[in-house]
Design brief:
Elements: H1 2-36, H2 53-59, H3 62-94, H4 98-113, H5 116-129, H6 136-160, H7 164-172, H8 177-206, H9 209-214, H10 222-230, H11 236-271, E1 275-276, E2 280-281
Antiparallel strand pairs: 1-2
Helix pairs in contact: 2-11, 3-6, 3-8, 3-10, 4-6, 6-8, 7-8, 8-11
């Protein structure tokens, strides 16, 4: 018995060491990047002293803020359109037969599985074929194509766990389908809708490959700007940009997780109240 407990303790120690080693491998480079963003030296490999010099340089770089502006415009437009179309697609698929739903699920997963380089080249060839000029609009359309699937699947997941008796009771009490959607369905699925929007927004902000192939003159985004800067040298200014982008990403991630958690809590609350439209509250 004592030998088994010592073996289990040794195994637990090794698993703990492996886990922390993996975590260190994943996050140590990010921590180093954040630390060196406060380095006064122009050379990223040697530490001089703590300074906010590169953040001041960052905030005074007009070309960089033009790239940030383009990224925000593209991300806002593409995520908004993706959210509207994705939510409508999810509502449609949720009410279809199982066979149609399985077939459409396969189509929705394709943009998530296909390599980004394939999507980028195909979108570029499509724009060239229809003689569509490359710019902010072409990048926005390209971002919609790969964001739409994510939004649809997130909303579908919420719809699958929604209490259908709430909608039936609403329409039996005299509400129209439109009123039922805005007063019952949408309030129930809004955490998933908003989470899908934020997910599409972050994917658009972060995208490089598809943007690189579909952008034109005057449509440089933040990832493209960082790439053009890093070709010359890795300065602490790039570290400062990356640190700000990292903080923004963490904030969005926490917000998405909070919204999804609220959606699960709402689902648990709905599941405790079974409403039969013919018999009332049970």
């Amino acid at each position: 018995m004592q030998r088994e407990s010592s073996v289990a303790a040794g195994r637990g120690l090794w698993l703990t060491l492996i886990t922390w080693s993996v975590i260190a491998f994943l996050y140590l480079p990010i921590i180093i990047l954040v630390i060196y963003s406060f380095n006064h030296s122009r050379f990223g490999v040697s530490w001089d002293h703590f300074s906010l010099r590169w953040y001041k340089v960052l905030f005074s770089d007009r070309s960089l803020w033009a790239a940030v502006s383009n990224s925000l415009i593209i991300a806002t437009a593409s995520s908004t359109v993706s959210t509207v179309l994705g939510t409508l697609a999810a509502l449609y698929l949720d009410r279809r037969s199982t066979r149609i739903r399985h077939f459409m699920h396969g189509l929705l997963y394709l943009p998530m599985i296909i390599p980004d380089i394939v999507i980028a080249v195909s979108m570029l060839m499509f724009f060239v074929f229809i003689h569509f000029s490359l710019g902010l609009l072409s990048v926005t359309v390209a971002h919609i194509t790969f964001s739409l699937s994510y939004v649809t699947l997130v909303v579908l997941t919420r719809l699958a766990s929604m209490n259908r008796h709430l909608e039936e009771a609403s329409m039996d009490l005299g509400a129209t389908p439109v009123q039922t959607f805005f007063r019952v369905t949408l309030p129930s699925i809004y955490p998933a809708v908003l989470a899908g929007f934020l997910l599409a927004f972050m994917m658009s902000i972060d995208d490089f490959i598809v943007t690189f192939f579909t952008s034109g003159v005057g449509s440089t985004t933040l990832p493209l700007k960082i790439y053009s800067m890093i070709k010359f040298s890795v300065t602490p200014e790039i570290n400062a940009i990356s640190t700000i982008l990292l903080l923004f990403t963490v904030f969005i991630l926490i917000l998405v997780q909070t919204l999804l958690s609220r959606g699960r809590q709402r689902n648990n609350l709905e599941s405790t109240v079974d409403i039969n439209p013919k018999e009332g509250l049970l």
